[in-house]
Structure formats: C-alpha cells, structure tokens
Amino acid sequence: MTDAPAILEVRGMIVRYGAKTILDGVDMTVQQGEIRVILGGSGSGKSTLLKGILGLTDVVGGKATMLGQELTGLSEKARGLLMQRIGVLFQNGALFGSLTVGENIALPLREHRKLPEGAIAELVRMKLAQVDLGHAENLYPSELSGGMRKRAGLARALALDPEILFCDEPSAGLDPLTSAEMDNLILTLRDRLKMTVVIVTHELASIEAIADSLIMVGGGKVIAEGPMAEVRGRGIVAVDEFFARKTKTAAKQEMSVADLFGLTPAKGGA
Amino acid sequence: MGVPTTAAKSTLPQLTLTDAPHTSVRERTLALAGVLDARGAAVFAAGVRKRLPSKKGKLVLDLSALTAIDSAGTATLVDLWRTGHRRGVKIELAGVQPAVQKELEQFRVTVELPPPATIPGFFESLGETAWSAVTALGNFMVLAADVTIGGIQAFFTPGRMRWATYFREASLMGSQAFGIVGLITFLIGLTLAFQSAYQLRQFGAAIYVASLTAISMVREMGPLITAILVAGRSGSSITSEVATMKVGEEIDAMQVMGIPFVDFIAVPKVLAMITMVPLLTMLADLLGILGGWLVGMIYLDIAPKPYLQKTIDALVTKDLVTGLFKSVVFAWGIALIGLYHGIGVRGGAQEVGKATTASVVSAIFFIIVADSIFSIIFYVVMG
C-alpha cells in the first residue's frame, strides 16, 4: 500500500430497490493515481456501486467522500462543481444522439468553461486526437461503430481534464482486439494525464492488463479489496473462481438434484 | 386385443403409487414402487399434484421400493420440487436406494436462491396498487413543479433559456401538426354544419348553422381536437425521445456532466408546446369555421357575407379566451405527461414503445377530463 491520500472513500454504502438489497454496506478506498477495478459477476452490485458513487441512484445508507468532499449533504451547486472534476465513460458511450461527436465533446466545455468558440473547436480536436478519433468530428453517434462510440464517450469524459475517470464496462461488447486497444488507451491516458481511474468490468483480459488494485463485489458485499497480486494470493474461493473463469451469478446456484432434496451423499458408491 | 406393448417389451416393472395413512392434514406420505422413468412420469406428476398438501405442508415420497430412475423421472422430481417451493410445500425423499441416489447426484440443476415469493392477498395487492398510484402521482407532481418553476425562471432570466433548442422544438411541433390539425378540423367543421343544417332547415333556421358551428368549434372542438392530435404526434415523440435517452444513459451522462435535464430538455419542450398548441388551436378554429361556411354556401345557399356576419355575432371574446386558455393547459399536460413517461422508463429498448403508448393514452385521458372540468367551471359556475 502506498501512503498516497485516498481520493475516493466509500463507507457502508447501502442501496435498495424496493425490498431487494443491492448493496449491503460496501466499503471501498481508492488511492490517488491508481487504476482500480470493481469486479463481480452479473447481479453482484458492481454497477450499482458506481451509480451510488455518482449519485445516479438513491443511496439509503453510508457515505462517500470524493476529492476530499463528502457527497451526501452537498448542495446542488457544490455537487455540480465537484462533478466537473470527474469524468464518466458510460457503457455505450451515452453520446447525445442529436449532436455530432464534436458537439458532444464541446457541450461540457460550453457549459462550464468560458472559452472563445475558436478555442473550444481546437480543444475538441485535441481531445478527439487523444482517443485517435480525429476523423469522426462531424459524424453522428449512430454512424459510429461500438468501439468508436466508446472512444468518443471517453473523449467527452476527458473534456474538462478530470482528476478521476470512471468507466462502466469499457470493453463490454467489443471484439478482443478493440477491447485491448481500449485498455491500452486508458493506460496511456492515465500515465499522460495523471488521473485516477475507476473501472467497473467483468472482462478478465482487461482486468489482467490494466488493474493496479481491485475490489470484488458479490451479493451486495465486498468479497476482497486490495492490490491485484495481494488479493489473488489470498486464496479466497470467489476470487480464485473468478480468475479461473468460473463466475456464477449471485442470485442463482447450481446444485445436484440430490442436494436439492437434501440427501446425504451416498457412502462408497456403486 | 393383444398385450400392452410397452410392458411386454420392457422387462422393467411399471410404477405404482400407494398412499400411506395420513398422519396429519399438513403431512402426507406417498410410496413409490417400481421404476420412475418416462413412461410413469406423467402419472407420477399428476398423482403427486393431486396429493400436494396446502400451504406450508409437507409431502414425503417413500422411495424405498423404487429400484431405478432415469433423466425424465429426475426432471419430473425437480419440477415437483419447484412447484412445491413456489407454494411453500416441502417435498422430502425417504428411503432412497443407492442406484436412485447415484442418478440424483449425477444431474445438476440451477436454483434461484431467494425465498419463494408469497402470493399477496386481496387487500395487500389493493394497497400495493393504491400505493404505487400515489407514488406515481407524487413523482409526476415533483416533475411538474420542477419544470414549471424552471419555465418561470427561464421566463424572467432569458439568458438561462436554451433558445436554440426551444425554437427547434417549436418549429418541429408546429410543422408536424400543422397539416393534420388543419385537415381534421376543416372536416369536423364541415360535418358539424351538415348535421346541424339537416335539423335546423326544418324550422327554416338554416342561418343558425353559422352560430352553431362557430361556437362549437371555438369553445370545444378546436382546442380538444388539436390537443388530441398533438398528444398523438408530439407528445408521443417527446416520450420516445426522452425514453431513448434514458435507456442509452444519456440522461445519466447529463447529470454527471452537471447539465440539468430540466433546463436542457424539459423546459424548452414544455414552452414550445405551450406556444404551439394555442397557435394550432387558432388555426383549427379558423378552418373549422371555413368548413361550415362552405357547407352554408354550397348546400344551404346562404350568401357568404351574412354567414360570416352571423358567425361574428355569435362569438363573444369569452369563447375565444376560454378556448385558448384550455389549449395552454392541455399543452402543459401533454408535454409533462410525455416527459414523465419518458424518464420513468426502466430496462431496455422494448420499454420505449410501451412508454410511448402509455404516454398517449394518459395524455388523451388528461385532455378529456380537464376539458369536462373546464366546461363546468366556465359555463356552469361562471355562467
């Protein structure tokens, strides 16, 4: 563990949808400058954890501190200012369909920075070049491939030079080659821009390629948290199974019919 | 006529079911003997279903005389376990033979772990429906308040208003509805005049067709028909647009980018609607009267001038003002209902279509209920 200050700290986060508890007291600490992967099977609550931190879902209990500010109880204005210091890449880019790629990236700049139009245009081109998408400025999102849409979404997330970048499943739905390119891009950008990156994913290949540290969520609770190598060396069954590509969803369990009826295993066997 | 083929071909014995004496109402025991395979599965399943105890009971299957089971038999057992699990009935196996146990250990199934959902009683589901209706109304009120306050703020601080979006929305709504509203209300004016002429001519009062058409168009038909058509065209497109944005996480993206949905999307749409619907209503009034005028000229041989004079005499300012006031309220409702159904979408793309349908239905419902209330207020209470 480094002694860098925690840039993001979650304590006892609880999220419920109706009677269903999705997150049941989750703690997480992210250090400055690291690439943190939030992993878990589908239905484990990993996406909800991200949504809870970003304020996109109602959090019933617990608190989150980001960049030294506690998120709960922040006024709308202060929250807006804090949000300008982070960037979010959504699963399919979440580009505004009625705007071109260039306009999408210009939008946060126009909203939050008082810049001359010419400077905005230059900045848009610079951000697009950063994600190797210089040729797509005047295209609409519907004209882009899945991988390009994600890169455009990344350029928009980087528009305001964020201190923390959040990515929701950055390589989901991409072919292995494009997925690896996306991972490399995130790695390069982190090194160049000195960002902290928090990634939700279940793609093993990309976890192994980019994670400094990880947190595994299952059934709404934290199964393990810490630096990559250390967590994998602890011999936690769920973690080992995950890396052995044997994840199962939290809500279902596979068992033999004999287990189903609670039969005690037969002695010896024929 | 011959021997039962299956039994003859197979050396394996058939399945037999025997009831053990009841120990209690909640617990029953059924003894199985022979072989549980595809041949006996249906009989077995039906037999067990018949004997399944009521809620929270237990059924014990005594398998001590069961010599073999196959995959079909095992599947039937699992199916029964699930049925029992749903109803809160426990199914136990007793005296399982090693051969049978080996089969049961071999097959794997996936089981949902959460406890079985309890089927709510009448009052419970009544309360749940009422509560969800109250929450929905509450959510709608919050949105309505946010958007209305945002609209008033935008009115007083024009710098905050997204004028470009507003003009785009307004011209789109206007051009979408212009043709259809004009055509439909023209035809309605025509029909109204025809139907009333048929009656009024018998009394030699054909000229009153002009007053009748004018009053019903301006007071009722113009605002009502325009609002219903706009709900179908523009209200539905508000819902589908916002729902698509919601499904594609664009609304979430706006929120984390600090771009308020209300200022950016909702207020321009509501204001565009509030300005366009009254304009379209005026068009509707005019074309409806034009339709009646044509009937008057061609079918009733009323000269154009007296017809128009009669029309102007019949209308008072109140008719026009109440008609336009109604159309503003309708517009407010259509836009807000459209937004509400759009941002309420959860799940995938197939939900967008459902939300759009729901939006149009509730908007038309709102229009007609609001119209009845206005009729009472304007012409009964206010006289």
Write the layout of secondary structure elements.
The complex is a heterodimer of chains A (270) and B (383).
Chain A: E1 6-17, E2 20-31, E3 35-39, H1 46-54, E4 61-66, E5 69-70, H2 76-83, E6 86-89, H3 101-112, H4 117-130, H5 146-157, E7 164-168, H6 176-193, E8 196-200, H7 204-210, E9 213-218, E10 221-227, H8 228-232, H9 237-243, E11 252-256, H10 257-260
Parallel strand pairs in A: 3-8, 3-9, 6-7, 7-8
Antiparallel strand pairs in A: 1-2, 1-4, 4-5, 9-10
Chain B: H1 5-9, E1 16-19, E2 27-36, H2 38-51, E3 58-69, H3 71-87, E4 90-94, H4 98-106, E5 108-112, H5 122-156, H6 163-200, H7 208-247, H8 250-256, H9 261-298, H10 304-314, H11 317-343, H12 350-381
Parallel strand pairs in B: 2-3, 3-4
Antiparallel strand pairs in B: 1-2
Helix pairs in contact in B: 2-3, 5-9, 6-7, 6-9, 7-9, 7-10, 7-11, 7-12, 9-10, 9-11, 11-12
Describe the structure.
The complex is a heterodimer of chains A (270) and B (383). By secondary structure, chain A is α/β, with parallel strands linked by helices. Chain A is built from ten helices and eleven strands. Chain A has helices at 46-54, 76-83, 101-112, 117-130, 146-157, 176-193, 204-210, 228-232, 237-243, 257-260, and strands spanning 6-17, 20-31, 35-39, 61-66, 69-70, 86-89, 164-168, 196-200, 213-218, 221-227, 252-256. The longest helix of chain A has 18 residues, at 176-193. Chain A is globular. The N and C termini of chain A lie far apart (53 Å). Chain B folds into two domains: 5-106, 2-Layer Sandwich (Transcription Regulator spoIIAA); 132-381, no CATH class. Chain B has helices spanning 5-9, 38-51, 71-87, 98-106, 122-156, 163-200, 208-247, 250-256, 261-298, 304-314, 317-343, 350-381, and strands at residues 16-19, 27-36, 58-69, 90-94, 108-112. Chain B has a four-stranded mixed sheet with strand order 1-2-3-4. In chain B, β3 (58-69), α3 and β4 form a beta-alpha-beta unit. The longest helix of chain B is centred in the middle third of the chain and has 40 residues, at 208-247. The radius of gyration of chain B is 35 Å and the shape is elongated. The chains are: A alpha/beta (270), B alpha/beta (383). The interface between A and B is large, with 37 and 35 residues.
